[in-house]
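User: Reviewer 2 asked us to show a designed sequence for the structure in our supplementary figure. I'm pasting the structure tokens here. Could you produce the per-position amino acids so we can include them in the response letter?
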């Protein structure tokens, strides 16, 4: 079969690598792809937000299956565009993407079906929101209800910080005209649980832990993720079982009961509180950088899993029990302003896989081309081994403008939040 991946980051690089190993694959394409993906797929220079052009290309090339990487494409209706054709899309429709794009939708669904999450209130009026903050406890969490690329969440440790966030979101309308959710602060260890979903069927993957803050010891601003590892020994087995059965499975069934068919990767951003696991957020696609440490563990054929799901058949999925750890190398200045187009050398000297998140090839020279640039990985039979290999590989990358965290994996190695 012919497969088309939409996107050009590290997640799509990991998807292209694992799909290229499938026995079912004839030809793999990526729109727009990147220099890393180009080793596995034919990269095609079409605007990934131009659904009609993607549809035309897919019909011409006899594509059988489309896999969108980012929520941006889902929110832009890529799945809905293909709904009248025989081409399958492993990604949710715009309506089902609301589980990620509308926090109000996700929160109300969880409330109705008793899925554990933080208590919350929704506001559109600044004064009412401010009064609510004044009458509730600190820390508190202020979230913009819409896609804000990970920047619409403020964990406020003081009333002033909370009110400043409300001003930015409700008075200055920095991210748009949406609502704001004020949420109870949850304390605990965070982890990501991803699943393959179609209709009522769900297949869980091994869990991962993403480091969202920019700097060591969880300091600095929130980012798209600065490093990741899988599995996560600090999260016990029974909490994982609970998360699979009482959170993800229940959510898939809840969507189904609401007649919202979800097809694709459903991602639970979870936190292990004293009362057990609770939902921080859902995403309607694979995590990035989670994909880059989970997909290399997949020992079954990904296209078989996906095509079986479309036929309502569950596949027994095999995963390697090795540890995989990845460290993001980001442009100095990310997640704010940064410069790009710095040459990158040394990728081929590493012993692990280096996933390309934001790169470009210019005159045959690989250069930085984004905020998050590379995810340098290591694997091993222990987490410590995987960590050592990843950091040894980092030392082989030569590029003058890249920064990285030095503590990825330490939460499980040394106990919680000690960096
Ligand atoms: P989100 O974009 O919703 O994943 O939020 C980004 C980050 O903010 C999360 O990974 C958490 O670290 C933090 N966060 C969000 N909601 C809460 C909450 N209710 N309690 C504590 N931390 C939170
Ligand atoms: N790594 C977090 C995300 O993909 O949203």
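Assistant: Here is a per-position design you can include in the supplement:
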């Amino acid at each position: 079969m012919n497969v088309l991946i939409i996107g050009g980051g590290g997640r799509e690089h990991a998807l292209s690598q694992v799909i290229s190993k499938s026995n079912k694959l004839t030809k793999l394409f990526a729109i727009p792809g990147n220099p890393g993906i180009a080793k596995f797929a034919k990269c095609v220079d079409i605007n990934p937000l131009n659904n009609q052009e993607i549809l035309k290309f897919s019909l011409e090339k006899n594509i059988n299956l489309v896999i969108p990487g980012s929520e941006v494409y889902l929110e832009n209706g890529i799945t809905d565009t293909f709904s009248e054709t025989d081409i399958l899309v492993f990604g949710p429709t715009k309506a089902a993407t609301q589980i990620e794009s509308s926090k109000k939708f996700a929160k109300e669904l969880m409330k109705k079906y008793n899925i554990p999450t933080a208590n919350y209130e929704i506001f559109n009026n600044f004064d009412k929101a401010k009064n609510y903050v004044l009458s509730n406890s600190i820390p508190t969490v202020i979230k913009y209800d819409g896609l804000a690329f990970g920047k619409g969440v403020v964990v406020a440790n003081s009333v002033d910080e909370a009110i400043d966030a409300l001003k930015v979101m409700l008075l200055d309308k920095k991210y748009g005209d949406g609502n704001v959710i004020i949420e109870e602060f949850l304390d605990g260890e965070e982890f990501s649980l991803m699943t393959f979903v179609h209709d009522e069927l769900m297949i869980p993957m091994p869990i991962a832990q993403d480091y969202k803050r920019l700097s060591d010891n969880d300091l600095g601003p929130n980012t798209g993720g600065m490093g990741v590892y899988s599995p996560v020994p600090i999260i016990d087995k029974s909490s994982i079982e609970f998360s699979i059965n009482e959170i993800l499975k229940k959510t898939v069934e809840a969507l189904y009961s609401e007649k919202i068919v979800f097809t694709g990767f459903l991602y639970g951003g979870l936190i292990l509180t004293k009362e057990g696991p609770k939902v921080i957020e859902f995403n309607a696609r694979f995590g990035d950088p989670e994909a880059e440490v989970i997909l290399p563990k997949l020992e079954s054929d990904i296209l078989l899993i996906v095509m079986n799901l479309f036929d309502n058949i569950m596949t027994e999925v095999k995963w390697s029990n090795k540890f995989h750890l990845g460290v993001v190398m980001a442009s100095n200045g990310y997640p704010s302003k940064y410069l790009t187009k710095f040459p990158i050398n040394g990728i081929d000297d590493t012993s692990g896989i280096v996933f390309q998140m934001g790169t470009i090839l210019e005159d045959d020279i690989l250069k930085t081309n984004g905020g998050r640039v590379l995810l340098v990985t290591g694997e091993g039979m222990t987490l410590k081994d995987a960590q050592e290999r990843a950091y040894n590989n980092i030392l082989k990358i030569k590029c003058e403008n890249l920064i990285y965290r030095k503590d990825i994996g330490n939460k499980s190695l040394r106990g919680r939040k000690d960096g």
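For the response letter, you might also mention the following. The CA atoms of residues 8 and 33 lie 4 Å apart. Residues 118, 141, 150, 153, 155, 183-186, 190, 212, 222, 269, 280-281 surround adenosine monophosphate (ligand 1) (CB under 6 Å).
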